[in-house]
Specification:
alpha+beta; 6-stranded mixed β-sheet; 24 helices; globular; DNA-binding
Length: 822
DNA sequence: ATATACACGGATCCCCTATTTCC
DNA sequence: GGAAATAGGGGATCCGTGTA
């Protein structure tokens, strides 16, 4: 017997003698690597129709117990059945819990249960690991007190021998540990350099590894006099073997890369295959396995392979300022560090190669990946703990599926049987639904305003879901004595006032978020910040989740009503501000901007208190702060105020720009920087004088052809295969040309181009922008007219119009003068 | 395949009419 | 003079990218 404290990191399962077992890899509190073997009996539910007599139920149970499935490899039996009082979609039900020997035949067993008294079957679509975590409550990244027996070398077909761990144990008892040590995973970051992106055409030239007190570059190319971390080998095969051994020796819990699901890992796997060796990275000596489908994932047994890009894309990207999620840009923003300035792609094609620089470059990528991982770890870890799915999944999860997993892992607390995933037909039906009305956006009056107080509802949609009890389970098909009355398709729709599972869960999350935020404000530390972040991310996903066609708990009436109640409440608040002498200048979804005018900040806060007292449930309006100036402009197509476009400056001079071209990556640097500068000048000075002078210098510079091409490059993302475009925009045309040149044109790539003057003026065909678009390295004179009329003027015009300045005339006037000069 | 709606604005597409070109 | 080609206006649509 062994007693130890244990933390689960990775989960796997295997069949032995027709029974499934969970294999849980983790660490003991003394840092030993442990594998626990444990099991549960798989089960699913048969929900009975209301009013079935006990005697009848007994008879059904007996019949179910006799079910046997004979397949080629095994016989699956029903082990036992139990009758339970459960809830399904909030309604009390009687349900038979059906235990079976093997999960693989669950669908066949289910098919046998077609008695008229059975309403439906459920929880047959949860995988073994999820079920195991729910049943045994052995959650990832929580500590447990384990009592277990050591396996000898023969048990379970010799599993103890095949695994590279310190101990393999069979669980006797496992209990949560109240006070637990801090867990820091052993992490190794890796990155490869290849002579071609296609493993069929190129080789792996080098592989770098970086961990705590550990740095290595494995290569068979070049020589290093400078760097001790470079290790040379004879050929690719030898290098790969050394890399595999190094990973095995270091024995990390987590192997992380950047885009390693999509490139590094599959590339290595293919190169290993071509070298006729095994890429034995798993703790059992197994090779990585890849999921099929569009989003490929690479799994390594016993070590968690985390593609950091996936996590950053799903969880962080909306909070990042970067224009792409490239390692360089993300590192620069989050770490203030960059990649080594070296063109690896060019190097693979060059005759002479600066190998020392190449090694540095390769290692730096692993260093950045490692540092980014460490920065993201508190968030990854908190999200994992909240949704209770293995790290491999939680690090790749989208927020909607994170929310669903939270529901799945919490259902038992509510005595709820879990709803099934929708069938394809259901999904198609849901997708065909018309859109419901969303947020309210206030039509601003263009102008420059002073002393603007900003307010926003905290967790607007989340708090609406809680306050009005909006969910699938609480949705009613008709009005009851007391119902919340929402709206869908312009008709009332009803929700019970008896608290439902999802609203209750949301309430807990919002409360936990509030606590984590308060804790962070009191004592700023990465853990409380990550907790606050994680709860915020998941809470924000709940509203979208209920309106998402793929959701188990899809409820478009709830989603529509959430938007409806949000609109009602914000409109009411706007009204109250107006009635109390505060002019509202803007509002979008959950925020309200008012000008103080003759009122003081204190007056506004007093009114806020009053508003808050009248808000339903947990809804709350917060004070965001005071802005000294703000500008709203006219829509370009029309003479009224543009929504979702404004700029503010606070007392400290900090500027907040929303929606303007400045923040849009599909405008050229010149237009963005010019607009940014002009907004800055206007907001700081409160007038247009300096801004106008600045604008004139830029226009002159442009006309004098002093602007470098790099400031004129327009970047547009390729969102689908070139052939699928109905409209041949400039970026599509450029992408085609790139393809002809043999350059990569993958979906998701940013296509870069600039607009040049056409060489052949005789071509009278109406000049399309795409015909003038050129690749950045294609020579040409930039098209002055285009950059003036399609970039600078459009981005400035409406700002200057606030001061009654006609930018177009300004620019044209100059142009005429130039023509005369000419 | 993988949360929602609202919104802006460039560029193309496409239809229509006016003008130019050609025989 | 009449048919065909071309230019240009303008709305619809496509497309990408923001805000919340």
């Amino acid at each position: 017997m062994v007693d130890l404290n244990f933390i689960p990191i990775d989960y796997d399962y295997f069949d032995f003698n027709g029974t499934p077992f969970a294999k849980i890899i983790g660490r003991s509190d003394t840092g030993k690597r442990i594998c626990l073997i444990d099991t549960i009996v798989p089960y699913f539910w048969a929900i009975l129709k209301p009013g079935v007599k006990d005697k009848k139920i007994k008879a059904i149970q007996k019949r179910i117990q006799d079910i046997q499935i004979h397949s080629e490899k095994r016989i699956t039996k029903v082990l036992k059945t139990e009758l339970h009082e459960k809830k399904f979609l909030e309604k009390p039900v009687k349900a038979i819990k059906i235990f079976i020997t093997n999960l693989k035949d669950i669908h066949d067993v289910r098919a046998e249960i077609d008695y008229p008294e059975i309403d439906k079957t459920r929880e047959y679509d949860l995988n073994f690991i999820t079920k195991y975590i729910i049943e045994r409550k052995v959650k990832p990244l929580f500590w447990y007190k384990v009592n277990a027996t050591m396996l000898d070398n023969q048990e379970f077909g010799g599993i103890a021998q095949s695994l590279n761990v310190d101990m393999v144990l069979k669980v006797e008892t496992i209990d949560t540990l109240e006070k637990y040590p801090k867990f820091v995973p052993k992490v190794l970051a890796f990155d490869i350099e290849a002579s071609d992106l296609d493993p069929g055409k190129g080789e792996t030239w080098m592989i770098s590894l970086y961990g705590k007190n550990y740095e290595k570059v494995f290569t068979f190319k070049g020589k290093s006099k400078k760097h001790k971390y470079v290790q040379n080998y004879e050929d690719e095969e030898e290098m790969l073997e050394a890399f595999i051994k190094a990973v095995d020796d270091y024995d990390p819990d987590i192997l992380t890369g950047y885009f390693s699901d999509g490139f590094d890992l599959p590339f290595l796997r293919e190169r290993a295959k071509r070298n006729k060796i095994k890429l034995a990275l798993g703790i059992d000596g197994s090779q990585p396995t890849f999921s099929r489908g569009a989003q490929r994932t690479g799994k390594i047994k016993g070590r968690v392979h985390i593609d950091l890009l996936r996590f950053i894309r799903n969880a962080y990207s909306q909070y990042l300022q970067t224009e792409t999620l490239s390692l360089n840009e993300v590192s620069n923003e989050l770490l203030g560090e960059k990649k080594v300035n070296f063109d690896a792609f060019a190097a693979t094609k060059a005759k002479t190669i600066d190998w020392e620089k190449f090694y540095e470059y390769n290692l730096q990528d692993s260093i950045l990946t490692y540092k980014l991982f460490m920065k993201a770890w508190p968030d990854i870890s908190e999200i994992t703990k909240i949704i209770q799915e293995p790290l491999f999944n939680s690090s790749r999860t989208t927020m909607a599926s994170a929310f669903e997993n939270l529901v799945i892992h919490s259902a038992d607390k509510f005595n709820e049987i879990i709803e099934k995933r929708p069938h394809e037909r259901e999904i198609a039906e849901r997708r065909s639904q018309p859109r419901y009305v969303g947020a309210f956006v206030f039509q601003p009056v263009p102008g420059l305003y002073e002393n603007i107080a900003f307010f926003d509802f905290s967790s607007m949609y989340g708090s609406v879901i809680v306050s009005y009890n909006l969910s699938r389970g609480t949705h009613q098909d008709r009005k009851h004595k007391s119902s919340f009355i929402g709206e869908y398709k312009e008709k009332p729709t009803y929700f019970s006032k008896e608290k439902g599972m999802i609203p209750q869960l949301m309430e807990i999350i919002i409360d936990k978020r509030r606590l984590a935020k308060a804790e962070y404000n009191k004592d700023p530390n990465p853990i409380s910040k990550a907790r606050s972040n994680a709860f915020k991310l998941i809470a924000n996903a709940a509203y979208g989740y209920q309106g998402f066609f793929g959701a188990r708990y899809y409820c478009i009436e709830a989603a529509s009503s959430t938007a409806y109640f949000a609109r009602e409440n914000i409109k009411k608040a706007i009204d109250t501000f107006e009635k109390n002498g505060f002019k509202v200048v803007y509002s979008d979804t959950d925020s309200i901007a008012t000008v103080l005018g003759k009122k003081s900040e204190k007056d506004a806060l007093n009114l806020l208190d009053k508003i808050n007292k009248k808000l339903p449930g947990i809804m709350a309006l917060d004070y965001e702060g005071l802005f000294t100036r703000g500008i709203w402009v006219t829509k370009r197509t029309g003479d009224f105020g543009a929504k979702k476009k404004y700029a503010l400056i606070d007392k400290k001079g900090k500027i907040k720009i929303r929606g303007f071209e400045t923040v849009r990556r599909d405008w050229c640097r010149l237009a963005r920087d010019t607009q940014n500068k002009i907004l800055n000048l206007i907001l700081t000075t409160g007038d247009d004088k300096q801004a106008l002078e600045y604008l004139k210098t830029i226009i002159k510079k442009l006309k004098d052809r002093k602007i470098p091409i790099k400031d004129l490059i327009i970047k547009t993302q390729l969102k689908k295969p070139i052939s699928e475009y109905k409209s041949q925009g400039p970026h599509v045309t450029i992408a085609k040309r790139m393809k002809e040149k043999g350059l990569p044109t993958d979906i998701g790539m940013l296509i870069e181009y600039y607009i040049a003057e056409p060489e052949n003026f005789k071509n009278k065909k109406r000049a399309l922008v795409r015909d003038k678009a050129r690749l950045p390295d294609e020579p040409g004179k930039y098209d002055l007219d285009y950059y003036l009329n399609n970039q600078i003027i459009p981005s400035i015009e409406n700002i200057m119009a606030v001061f009654k300045i006609n930018t177009k005339e300004l620019a044209d006037g100059k142009k005429q003068k130039n023509l005369f000069d000419f």
